[in-house]
Amino acid sequence: MHEPAAPRTLADDPLAGVAALPGVAESVDAARRACEELRWHEAYRRRWREVRAEAGLRSARGSAALDGARVPLDVVRALAVGEGPGRDPRGTAAPGLAPQAAAEPAPGARSAPDVAVAAGALRVAAEVERLMPELGARGAAALPPFGQLAARLHAAAGRGWVADDDLGRLRTTQVPLDLRGLGAAPSGAEVAGRLDLLNRVLRETRAPALVVAAVVHGEVLALRPFVAGNGLVARALSRLVLTSRGLDPTGSLVPEQAWSSAPNPYLSAAAGFATGTPDGLAGWVAFCARGAVDGAREARTVADAVLAGRLTTGG
Known about the structure:
- With 315 residues, the protein is an all-alpha fold.
- It has 13 helices and no strands.
- It has a single domain (21-308), classed as Fido-like domain (Fic-like fold, Orthogonal Bundle).
- Helix 11 (255-261) packs across helix 13 (278-308).
């Protein structure tokens, strides 16, 4: 007769060490309070889909800006409805985007490559929002295996500006072209193993959603598993984890707004995570928590605008 398995304890959790670092519990509490306060905004009673959609636009714009592609919000909004620049080079619209009317960058966009990256960020936002549970849904959202999910998001992000052969494929011998400020990236041979480990961690951990999202975000930035577009993928994965694990059921946090306005602290905190030191890990979790608080503030701005019927097209 087999004895029943012993129940898992916090000490058995693969992220228990991160969750127990100094300051992490306080960071988790700060993010939780901000998200709880946001949840009860009047706009989420009936118009949460509008808030989430607008937040997705702003998230995409900020994420693209963090990768150096600074495109005005009105251009991003036009891309989303099919009236702006950013036509797919093969003449087909991206999932979630209407067919584009023009291929030249609009005034205010620095270049066609910037617009291509912004369009990729929009496609990633659309993919993530398709996977998010509806506000008020019960139970955890079922997500694809991590490797498949990351590849799917990368294929969406990179279409039109990353080589077709590299879309959704882990790099092998190549050196990543982005995030060079984080130092040397792990070899291609190491990437697959570490992503597999991350997949196992995600299956097993019961750590707070903020901690899980921060680890996923930081690890993808550190690994840079694809030849380019790693930042877009990392931030999209973080957004999805925060919502699917219940910290941000509204799916409308916009931390990218604050991060893109001051990218150096973002990169510095990510570099700290990549060191793997206790201070670096705790500092990154605290940074992500501040991002959640700032992101909730921006989401409240969006929610106010939705209720008032005054979403602006500038920015």
